[in-house]
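Q: What structure does this chain adopt?
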Amino acid sequence: MKKTIYLFGVLVSLWAFTACNKSEKKAGTETAAVSDKDKEIDAKVEALLAKMTLEEKAGQMTQVNLNKVLYTGNGGGYDNNYGIIDPALLDTAVVKYKVGSLLNAINRAYSQDQWISIITQIQDKAATTPNKIPVLYGIDAIHGVTFTLNSTLFPHNIGSAASWNPAVSASCAEVTALEARACGLRWNFDPVLDLGRNPLWPRFPETFGEDPLLGERMGISAIKAYEGAGLDKTNAVASCMKHFIGYSASRSGRDRTPSFIPEIELREYYLPQFKAAVKAGASTIMINSGEINGVPVHASKYLLTTVLREELGFKGIVVTDWEDINRLHERHNICSSIKEAVKVSIEAGVDMSMTPHDFKFTKAVIELVNEGSLSIERVNESVRRILRLKFAVGLFENPVVEKEALQNFGKPEYAAKALDAARQTITLLKNDNNTLPLKKTLKIVVAGPNANNVPSLHGCWSYTWQGADATATLNKAGEKPFIPGFDFAKDSVLPLFPASTLSIKQALEAKIGAAKVVCQSVSNYEDPKNYSLPSVAGADAIVLCLGENSYAESPGSIRDLTLDARQIALAQAAIKTGKPVILVLVEGRPRVISSFVDGVPAVIDAYWPASQGANAIADVLFGDYNPGGKLPFSYPRHTGDFVMYDHKWTEENVETTPGNFEDAGYQPQWPFGHGLSYTTFEYSNFTVSADTLVGDAKLKVSVTIKNTGAVDGDEVVQLYSRDVFASVVPSLKRLRAFERVSIKAGESKTVTFEISKDDLSFIKEDQIAHTYTRVTEDGEFKLMIGGSSNFELEAPEHPWTSFLYRTYKGAKSVYYKAK
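A:
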C-alpha cells in the first residue's frame, strides 16, 4: 500500500487578552440593510394581511399532504397512486379550510408534466378564493428532486461530505433548484444540518457527518446555491435548514426518540451550523421531531423563540415536521388535547403545522383565537412570514412555473455534474499491495446484493420516500397523458428509475466488456442468488458489492451496526477462494466489517452515490478516476464504539492498573478524515505567520503538499487544533479548516489557512448565572496539519507521562512565546 507522509505538530501560544470574558455576539443584534424590494414586499404583506379573515390566517398556517386532494380508493375510478386531483377534495382543502401549503407526493414519482398539471389545478383553485392567495408547495428534494421521474439524483449528504468539497454540495443544490422550479416546486426541505455522531440513527445518510465545521461548510454551500440567485429567480428555491435542534442525538439511536443533551454540548456541537445557516439567509427551518431533556422541541419556547429568534436572529418560517403538533398530545403526552398542543406549539414559536392528514390544526387555531386563548397578534406574526415568502418566491406573479424555467429540467449536463460529484465522494479505505486500480484486461467475478440493484445506489428520498422500489404498480388501465412513453393499456408497472441508470454490474460490463464480468446477482435485494458466489474459475479478482438497501427515517432503524450475516458469510467465502477481493461498500451509514476485512486487500466506500454512482465506481476500480474522498465520520471497528475523533483524553485511555494507562479508547476501523489515493502526497514547510496571536489578529498557517506519485490526484488538507489547557476539558483535536486541492504528478502546491481566536474558541458556562458564552482563553494551542485526523505519536519518554508531553513522529515543533 502506498503511504502518505504528514507533517504536523506546531505549538502556538495564544494571548487573547480581552477574549476570555467576552460574550458570544448575538446574530440578531446585527442590523441588515433593508432593500427597496423588501420594503415593497412588506407593504404588500401588510395590505393583504389587513384584508384576511381569521379563517384565512389559520389556513395559511396549515400544510397538508397531497393525498388530501387526490382521488383515493375507488373514488373517480382511481387510487391516489395515480396522482389525480379530486376536485371536491381540493375544494375542501383550499376553499373551505383555506390551506396555505401542500407537500410531497404519494407512493411514486410524477413526471414534470404531471407536476405542472397538479400545481396548476391547485393554484387555479386558490385563485377562486377571496384574496387569491397562492399555495406554497414543499418537497423533500434531499439529493435531487425526489418525487419526480427522470430528475437528476446526486450523492446523499453523507457522500457529499466525503468529498470535503463544498462545491459538490453546491452543485447538487443548483441542479435541484433548477429542476424543482421547472416543475413548479419552490420550497425544498433541505439541507439537513443534524450531526451524524451515532450511525445507528436511520437519518445518518442525510447528515454531513460527525464534525460541526464540515457540516456547516457543506450545508451553507447548499443554502447559498438554493437561494443565492434571489428567490424570485428561476434557478432558486427557498431552502429549509433542519432539524432544529439535536434531532440526531437520540439516546437510543432511533428516529424521533428522546435526546438528553447538556446545554454546553448543544451549543458547542449542534447550534453552530444553524447559526451559520441563519446568517447565510436560509428562508425556513424545520423542527426536531423528538424531545431534548424531556421537553419536545415543538413545545420549547426557549429553543424556538429565545435561541432561534432572539439570539440567532432568524426571521423566516418555522415549520413542524410530520404530525408533530398532534404528537405533543398523542405520543409525548404533554398536552391533554390536540387543541392544547396547537396553542403550546404556536406560543413556543411554530408558524406552520405539517398536519398531513386532517384539518384539526386549522380548526383549533380558529377556536383558540375566538375564545381568547391565543392572540391574533401572534397568529399575524406567523402569517406575515408565510405571506412574505410567497411574495419572495414570486408566487403572486406566476404561481405555477415560469416559461423560462420549463427548459431547466433534465439537461444533459446535469448527469455530468452528478458523475463528477459521485467520483469526488468515493473513498479508498484500504489498498494493500496496490490491488487497485484493476487492469481492464482482467476477468472479474461480481457478487453481492448491491451488485445488480439500482435503488440501493440511491438510498432514501429517491423517487419514493424509502427509495427501495424500482417500480410502482398502477391498477387502472387507460390512457394517461402525464407519463410519456408509458402505455397503461399494456402494462401497469411503472419504472421509477431512468433507463440510463446503471447497476454496478452493468457499469462494469460497459467498462471492460460483458465477457469479462461474471455475475449472478439479480435486482431483488433479498434473492438468495445475491448471497452466494458464482464459479470463480478463470477469474482474476472478485468485486464484492455489499452494504445496505435503501431506507428512510424510522423504517431504517437497526439495533446492530454489524453487516448482515449473509453478507459476512459471502465475504468469507470469497476470501477462501484465494482470489484478490475488492470490497465495494454501498451504504448510508458505516456497517461493521471487522470480522472479515483483514482478509480483503482493497476497500472503497461509495456511500449512496445515486444516479451516476455505478459509473463512478467503475471509473475508480479501473483507474479512470483517482479517488480523493475522505471519511466524514469515524468508521467504527465495533458496533458499540461511538467514540468520535474529537474525543477527550479520558475517552482514549483506560487505567488498567493504578497509574498505568492503556490507549484503548479511539480505535476505529478507519479514522475521521481518512482516505487513500492511487498516488502519494508529502507534506513539508509547515509554517505559522506569527509567534503569538493577540486579540482580533489573524494567524496564517501554510503547508506545501507535493504529489510524489506517478498520477494526478486530489488531497484534502486538514488543519486541526488542540487547546492544551482550558477551563472546560478540551478535546484532543478539533477540525479548524480544510481544503481539497488537485495536484498533478510531480508538482507541489502551497495551501494557506487563516484562523482567528474564534476558531480556537469553545462554549463555557458561568456556573453561578448558568449562562453560556463562547470564549477563547489565554494559553497554548497545538496545530496539526495533514491528510487525516490520525497523527502518529512518538512513544512517551516515561510510560506514565501524559499525552501533553508526547511528540509527533517527524514533526517540526515550533514554540511561540508571549510578547
